[in-house]
Amino acid sequence: TRVLVLNGPNLGRLGRRQPEIYGTTTFGELAGQCVEWGHAVGLDVEVRQTNHEGELLDWLNTAADEQTPVVLNAAAWTHYSYALLDACAQLTAPLVEVHISDPKQRPEEFRHRSVVTAYAVDVVAGHGTDGYRLALERLAAAL
Ligand code: DQA
């Protein structure tokens, strides 16, 4: 089964970005691991990252058209983008929300809300980049 692992803003700098919060695994390393973790559970994984909200919306709209399952780390858009909410609402195949940190445990109020969760079959947060493996396993289980 083909699966998209979609990543929002600033996640391209993983490994260099606030490593005390997000760890030292680079985005390129994580992308390679996701492909391997996917294969292990029978998924054909494609990993993407964008800093442009419209690009993420286009990817989600295509995923809706093609009924493609999605693992989504929408990063900061998670907390305030109603366009993202509307795009997630249109998905018909399972969606798993993933975060490297646990936004609900972080001090900033704005991180405590997610517009994605209502449309997700599962949320994985606070497991570092290994959380993507859990997310892919939960997606495989939901399929
Ligand atoms: C994040 C958490 C968000 O609050 C933050 O804006 C991110 C990354 C995470 O993976 O922990 O950019 O989604």
Could you characterize what this model shows?
This protein is of the alpha/beta class. The chain has one domain (2-142): Rossmann fold. The chain has helices at residues 19-22, 27-40, 53-66, 82-89, 131-142, and strands at residues 2-7, 44-49, 70-73, 95-99, 122-125. Strands 2-1-3-4-5 form a 5-stranded parallel sheet, sandwiched between helices. Helix 4 (82-89) links the parallel strand 3 (70-73) and strand 4. Helix 2 (27-40) packs parallel to helix 5 (131-142) and helix 3 (53-66) packs parallel to helix 4 (82-89). The chain is globular, with a radius of gyration of 14 Å. The protein starts with a strand and ends with a helix. The mean pLDDT is 98. Bound molecules: 1,3,4-trihydroxy-5-OXO-cyclohexanecarboxylic acid. 1,3,4-trihydroxy-5-OXO-cyclohexanecarboxylic acid is lined by residues 10, 73, 75-76, 78, 99-101, 103, 111.
What is this entry, summarized?
By secondary structure, the chain is of the alpha/beta class.
SS element count, helices: 5
Number of strands: 5
Query: In which range does the helix fraction lie?
Result: 25-40%
Q: Are any ligands bound, and if so which?
A: 1,3,4-trihydroxy-5-OXO-cyclohexanecarboxylic acid
CATH superfamily: Dehydroquinase, class II
Q: Give the SSE string.
A: EHHEHEHEEH
Please state the second-level CATH architecture: 3-Layer(aba) Sandwich
